[in-house]
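Mods, move this if it's the wrong board.
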Amino acid sequence: MTSDDPVRGILQRWLPDHVESFSLETLASPDGLDVFEIESVGAKVVLRGTTGVAQASALNWYLKYSCNCHISWDSTQLALPDPLPRIEKVRISTPYRYRYDFNYCTYSYSLPFWDWERWQREIDWMALNGINAPLSITGQEAVWQAVCRQLGLADAQIDEFLVGAAYLPFGWMGCIDGWAGPLPAGWISEHAALQKRIVERQRAFGMTPILQGFTGHVPPALSQVFPDCTVHQLSSWAGFTPTYFLDPADPLFERIGHAFIAEQTRQYGTNHLYAADTFIEMVPASNDPALLTALSQSIYQGMASADPQAVWVLQGWPFLYKEDFWQPEQIQAVLRGVPEGRLLLLDLYAEEYPQWKKTDAFYGRPWVWCMLHSFGGRPGLYGNFPAVARELPSALNDPGHGQLSGIGISAEAIESNPALYDLFCEMAWHRQPVDLSTWTARYAARRYGQKLDAAEQAWALLSTSVYDTHNQLRDTYGGMRSVVCQRPHLDANRGWRAKRAAQLPQVIEAWRLLLNCAEHVGNIGGFQRDLVDVGLQAMTFAAETLHTRIVAACNAHDLSTFRPLSAQFLQIIAQMDALAGTRPEFLLGNWIASARRHGANDAERAQLEWNARLLVTLWGEPNSILHDYSCRYWAGLLNTFYRSRWEMLFQQLEQALESGTPFDAAALERRVIAFEDAWTHDTSPMAMQPIGDPVSLGRQFLAQYQPLLSEPTEGAMPAS
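Not the wrong board. Structure tokens:
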């Protein structure tokens, strides 16, 4: 396959009627960084680039800024002008060696059940958006299985170590063992074959896939096979049974590290970049700097013994998440254990909590400015446009940025807030801040296929409200959970209410303005998606307004007020379900179907569906502290899960108000948890095709709830 072939494949898949309108040429790179050029020569548009990624980026730039077209996760708008616009020569280069993509958690919250067709689309999207260093950890189960067999573990012991299909990255990070397993019988071979196709295509574009390195996390049964090895039990993560860590000083550590890299290279090849996060949300047993240096030396040596060119890619998340432990002395101790030029650090949450500013740019080591944004895929329009458009180039131009070597998407879940990711990826090709008012206006025009004043106004409102640094729906760790997605309660201060005043007028007006565009662009997929997103945001504020009044009615023992309010609250959730159900990306049924197709029999399909349902609801055991961590606004989930829980609360409250007896919160919690657990094991069919029209429903719901949303905001009140 030549360097042009993968880009020609993009043309064939996305622009089949225009393949011959483009010519592809390769550029030399004098400094090792990607460059692209676009130029009309004769009847053709010439796309030049240093790599396939650069050529694909040239195509995307031409589509965006010459053709007013748009390619996104959720939709495409590819109504190209005829003839294609001519363009004078444009040459753009990136200052970033690495354009990273994916968090370990993305492999749970977004893509655990993807097939090749979906992966091919994503790799195309990555290339078009300049990504050249994706985390590529599909198929790690096959490597672990082979290495464990080499070490003498029985298959039953390996099965007890590997986690369920929806939870695999939490096994690779050493958080959990065995949870939600076993894997289907054919899963390992199927995903090994899938990974080979993934990395082959990524490399064809000139990407450098980042594979897995050995972290020290080992199966519990290892000590049975090697009774003299030194294994430590780590602290519990999120209430799960503690996992096991092989002592770095044990000779077995380097042996396993070598075997792991060697086996992985045999199966998937290598580009010498390896991710390894030993203590992602746990802490080592000691903060002794000498021991921490020895630890990092052992981890790196396990990679380098099999691959002398190995570069360790390390997430900087622990330095924020456990900052009390990771003081400057401890951070520097870990970095000292790795040779110069052999460590690349990811500043994982730089758009909100930049660690490079607190660590003297990671004490001189190469690092990547990352946008984390989404935790668990929680719903809502939110994101930090100003940080991406201004603070990222500010870091690039800061003389104290040290070895800033790249930018990266480190979101735990993708496919939400597409405007934010479009902006972020484009910043790989900008050295100076971008004017957000101009950028959002052009984004709306290309996403919807034409310039509409109302659409520009709507996006201007969204840019200064939901996507503003100070007004976004974000707490310390990502998007706030709305009241709709929370276990039923009577605390009128929780949810999105804190941002209601800063967002609601703009969101309502943006919804109205977008609905006014429907006669022009109502059939455009991106427009429909945005209409649903904005509508769900507004309806959530309506639900929280009603919840505040329900709490007040309960505190006043006012049954006559409580009944209509609680009925209307349940109606809103049902209507949100209906609105979400008009778009394929908001269907629980598609998530479940993507899981079930990997099963070979009814038992395997039921196990996979349980994984899929569990992850977005309870997450773990019924009493897990992670419940609703990965909540979603999905049709099917809203109505059968969230609405059903709230209905339990209202039924019990009504009984208490009628009888004048105390409300039994403990009894409600038991009922709700039992319901949740049963729901995860249910296999009732869910819709897999959109139903209804987001425009007509949007108009109906805006008219219905605008009066409620226009009323003054109630102040906070004590929980009942």
